[in-house]
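Narrative summary of target 7.
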Amino acid sequence: MQIKRKLEYPLWKIPYFLIKSFLVFIKIIRTGILALLIENKYFNKRIELILKILNFIFGNNNQKEIGKKLSNVLINLGPGYIKFGQALSTRPDILGKKTCDELKILQGELKPFSNSISRKIIQNENKKFLQESLAFFNDNPIASASVAQIHTGILKNGEKVAIKILKPKIHKELFRDFTFFYWITKFLEFCIPTIKRLKLPKNVEVLSEVSLNELDLTLEASAADELAENFKDHHNYRVPKIYWEFTTKNMLVLEFIDGIRIDDLDSLKASKHNVKKLTEIGTEVFFLQVFRDGFFHGDMHPGNILIDKEGALVPIDFGIMGRLSNNDRQFLALLLSYLLNKNYKKVVEIHDEANMLGKEISHDHLSQAIRAISTPILNKPIGEVSLAKLLGQILNLSKKFNIEVQPQFTLLQKTMLMAEGTTRQINPNINMWELSRPLIHKWITDTHDPFKVLEEWFHKNKIALLKIPEIIKKIDEILSKK
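Modeled conformation, tokenized:
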């Protein structure tokens, strides 16, 4: 409810939002992006015709450097739009490699704010940090992204650290964008009532709530700490050390990682890293986060994943993290397993068991529809198979088949798209879902093992179970008195 109240808007803003939505729409189309979408044959013929008409009326005939133009537009529009561009930068299958390379500037190469402001923010957060704790502070940031920028420093004990500070007024700017996105979803529901089943406003609420972690760096530090705990025994994936004594809501101090971006193939090969092995490690880590822990990194663009000297994957940003309940994980594992095995009747059954289908829905017709959208995707060459895209296509069936869309999967689908995009960038011949298949199957088997279920139940209820003798004793005393 707190997020929903933040996103509510006064009625007098509606005319302003209408004008703004038109202007934003025109600005984005003028970059030439519609021509790319049409060229790549990503949509069906009906939508493609609409895009061609819009491109003819509003589009730009100069198709050079679409990525740079789009980057500049998104940067000028605000931090919420930059996040949208970051997600697009991992999808060469949609926009092409050249455009995605041009969009990478959004992953950490934005224009930084001035040195004096950086020092002032740090001074306000910890008056003694610059003078008494640091032997050196680099005024020039090494990265500047949508909500924060990062400087480096050396502590007096010789340890090199990264110092992340929030941008000034970022709370106001980010929620200004989310409020606008929230209005757009409400407006679309008003104009097209049939899309209410997609729960678009709820999706914006979920993404806004997740983004709150980015605006409180103590929450980000906590997320990093939890992720480190989950992977303390995994030698190929490690989380940087957090310096809690210096960390505040607006400043995060963590271990500096001297590594190579996961998509910098030339540098990885020059350093003799095994790219195939890195892909396998990344796939395993993604699986463990989503299915084993139900706590996953929600911003997996390549700028947030480094490879250290030992070949371990090191995440460096923990502002957006997602959670899934055990029921959500079981549903997702079964869904992916049945899709990979092309068992479409079972896909329909688990939707029905999760109460996501209306009683009047024909299971045979829905199964046939899922087969129709799945076959072209699953029959592609192994490096081009996209389960994230397939899940999106299944969500699009919600209008026709009255499927209840689950907002908790919104961030996961975005993360899956990023993970697939990153995997495809570094190793086009590997399908992360084929690598995940045995892991998913084992997880399903283990979670449905009656002994493991019983063990988990005892673990969850051990405190209550320990009180049973005391309860029996009290009952016995009451009966004795009577």
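Residues 260-448 form one domain.
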